[in-house]
Amino acid sequence: MKIEINEYLLKLFHLVKDLGDIDFFWGKAKLSRTEFRILWEVANEQCEGRDIISSELARRIGITRSAVSQIVAKLEKNGIVKRVGSDYDRKIAYIRLTDEAVETFVQQANEANEFAERVLAEFGKERLDKLLDESREFSELCYRLADPSKAAQ
């Protein structure tokens, strides 16, 4: 039995994999995408002077509270985040970056932003805007067609 896969589907899979394999932190941080996303959410809240709890992280990222708890425990063990109890409710623990992690996160975000600026300078703003617009449109089309309830619309 031979299974044929559309050549464009294969090219899309390779493109997504290639983009996903780019290490924007140049080997300095070995984090899964979910770990990075958690840190990003925590850092953004912290920068705005707000705290975040694990149930909110789970809701934003689309994973279970148990998964968030496991990831936070690992990050806490590695000195990246800390849990801080609420002054008002002993059952609530806020998740914050450690001071060292904030410093590293800011430095690496600056390096990633410099990388993005180099890409923009070399690829061109107009081309990049067009690529991103068409990518978003293509992504929306794929989601719509992949969902049979939306394909009939």
Short structural summary:
This protein has 153 residues and is mainly alpha-helical.
Shape: globular
Helix content: 55-70%
Identify low-pLDDT runs. none
Indicate the mean pLDDT: 86
Number of strands: 3
Q: State Rg.
A: 20 Å
What features would you describe in this structure?
With 153 residues, this protein is mostly helical. The radius of gyration is 20 Å and the shape is globular. It has helices at residues 7-20, 33-47, 54-61, 65-77, 99-123, 125-146, 148-151, and strands spanning 52-53, 81-85, 93-97. Helix 3 crosses helix 4 (65-77). Strand 2 and strand 3 (93-97) form a beta hairpin. The chain has seven helices and three strands, in the order H-H-E-H-H-E-E-H-H-H. Strands 1-3-2 form a three-stranded antiparallel sheet. The chain starts with 6 loop residues before the first helix and ends with a helix.
Secondary structure elements and their pairing?
Elements: H1 7-20, H2 33-47, E1 52-53, H3 54-61, H4 65-77, E2 81-85, E3 93-97, H5 99-123, H6 125-146, H7 148-151
Antiparallel strand pairs: 1-3, 2-3
Helix pairs in contact: 3-4
